[in-house]
Amino acid sequence: xxxxxxxxxxxxxxxxxxxxxxxVEDDPGMLERFAAAxxxxxxxxxxxxxxxxKDAFARLLLVTPDVLLVDLGLPDIxxxxxxxxxxxxxxxxxxxxxxxxxxxxxxxxxxxxxxxGYVLKDCSDSDLIARVLELRAGGSPMSPGIARIVLNQMxxxxxxxxxxxxxxxxxxxxxxxxxxETDVLRLLSRGYTYSxxxxxxxxxxxxxxSHIKNSYRKLAVRTGTAAVxxxxxxxxxxxxxxxxxxx
Length: 247
Prior knowledge:
The protein is α/β, with parallel strands linked by helices and 247 residues long. The chain has two domains: 5-156, Rossmann fold; 170-238, Orthogonal Bundle (Arc Repressor Mutant, subunit A). The protein has eleven helices and five strands. The longest helix is centred in the C-terminal third of the chain and has 15 residues, at 205-219.
């Protein structure tokens, strides 16, 4: 997609270590607003921006973003189709919905499709950037009203926040966790930060985050807290000693 010369120049000047973001948004004004905000911050870098689901499918695997921002009301398909495609083909990509739709049906459908963040378009530019960085750090940023919907679903034991039974696997499904993924969750359950977990296991914070995200998929949850809770329910956090305790 063509970018204004000034925006394109700023994008090319951003550091390689910045979080690489792709935006899928059909409103041109909103698309430019999001892109400009992300370009201005040296911690984020816009690698692609498209206005349709078709273009998202065509470009996603070519630019391989770290974070995908998706609107739901696209002109050709529903945004959840883009989310589902991205979650299936780019498992390391973090997906966040940015939309005007704050109803329960869209929230749950988006999270079940693979989104781990959901914010409304009335957020400020600085808040958008903060949410993108939080998402990439392993969090699940959500607007307050959206978080309430997910919490209600968790309390009801259904929907995106819950840990549904896995087909054919029963409660033994969590044994698919690797030893290192289990170590990470065990240390998190003891109150260690991501950085402290990395220090104790001799791995980077980025690797810690990757292990946590892998656990999300295997345990059928959407947050770090839910992953620890689910692993504890399955008895996985007490099956071995703390392999990282020696440093």
